[in-house]
Amino acid sequence: MNRLCKPAVAGLVFLLMSQKTAAKPRPEAAPPGSGSEAMKGADLLIKCLEREGVDTIFAYPGGASMEIHQSLTRSKQIRTVLPRHEQGGAFAAEGYARAIGKVGVCMATSGPGATNLVTGIADALLDSVPMVAITGQVPQHMIGRGAFQETDVFGLTMPIVKHSYLVSSVDEIPRVVQEAFHIASTGRPGPVVIDIPKNLQQGKARPAMPERPNLPGYSMPPDPDPALLHEIVGLLSRSSRPVLYAGGGIITSNASAELRRFAESAGIPVATTLMGIGCFPENHPLSLKWLGMHGTVYANDAVNEADLVLALGVRFDDRVTGNVKRFAENATIVHIDIDASELNKNKPVHMPIQADVLASLRGINRILKSTPVDAARFQKWRDHIAERKRLHPFKFNDTADVIQGQYAIRRLHEICKGDAIITTGVGQHQMWAGQFFDFAEPRQFITSAGLGSMGFGYPAALGAKVARPDKEVIDIDGDGSFLMNIQELATAHIERIAAKAMVLNNQHLGMVVQWEDRFYESNRGHTFLGDPRDPRRIYPDYVAMCQSFGVTCERVAHKRDLDKAIERMLASTEPYVLDIIIPYTEHVLPMIPAGQTYREIITEMDGSGPHIAKQTLKAGENL
Prior knowledge:
Rossmann fold; alpha/beta; six-stranded parallel beta sheet
């Protein structure tokens, strides 16, 4: 094939593939416009978004999307928040969605605007966040010709979306929008992309609005089989060491109350994933907090020593399991998930069940009412775990006046009494936030878990604060991660979004430094973020930078000043940054090295562990 023909052919395939995904619109209902009056495509799009209940869109304009922005200026329902980078807009849409449970919406122009959304779209896919990303596209007759700011958004995002559309006529807009929101928010939530050529935004039509989505190939998961739920209760009655292993699916399905009812009625300890933090109150006696690479020693012990693991809304991620073949190797494992593709994908289990976690827990709780499990039968098991809790709490190298990151987070929790939504960037601070802030409610901890996107924290805090203006929203961040989207301070100031940031500033890429210390003989491979010509100077100067954005920033370097600074941050009704200077030598512990098991867990800075192998229960041993 002639190389010069490839772009045109690619564009044709691009268009045909999108058309294949679409059923013809059904004309049984009136359009969302005024009577039978023809509407511009851009106006029609906004009316359809309003019909879906959209009240906020995070959108950055450009040549291929400016028609839609003009229409947005006339909307009385939708608030348009202007991020200072499209990636910030995508992360803000995720924060909005995760804080309130609605679909988050972001928008960008074609070409670089659309490609700047890609990280946020991938992040939403891995963390199962309902999001609709709208992109402008060059006019249809220019697709495949290498036009200015043309990108094959449909093809580019195909591996990282739940579904995507390239709109091919104005009449399709109502159906596409309705389907996109339905797909994004049902089943296992995820991102959907709608790519709209500019000529269709400008064109007019009298389209019909379908009454409901018509997607024959998109089915909801089946109801849980009652026989299987009875079998789960039967397994419990024969178990002596059960554990509930709960993930983000509990939060997504709003099943936290049913999970707590189940755990309390049967007396079963609960360990969560990072995404599941908050689905079970961490101050509850049955809480093991979270497990995995940097989770609690006792959560890792319990899951790996259990004889029955009930895995609910999880995906057996490698950061949770370590060596997956040896994860919970002596347990009978039941895995309930709404997504059939997750069953037996990473970890073969004894009883895979595709079903909604909420419906499954409701069914189990109904069975337990008539056939209760005696919670007293697990008392020795709970006592055993309680002893592990006593022996291996989260701890750190506390110092007289130097502020450790863990200490700062613990004091934040104590001063705000745990009443805040916490977002994070990615790195040591992210793990410490999960360790030293005790979360009591779902949707209280918002972090980039699957993709691990640095720069996520502050834009996500903006979105969460827009969704929940009644809540204190604080981004616990690192200096490296915070700097990646620091331009969103302008968004916070101009839009009057009072999201706070507590930056744990160690002048290094702390987590990478930790791995260098552990596995590379402390050889620094470009992990110092300060100024090598003046290493003692704090660089960059966040106080001066925030001042230029019109945002208050305070720097703290001593313990004696920390509490009052946190109180001033919490008292502020405006955006606020607290720059806390911490040492770079501290490690996140405990730590299970990648690919290892809970037996190789590291709990001390010198690399020593609790010698769990000597304490581990033997297979089949009863408590």
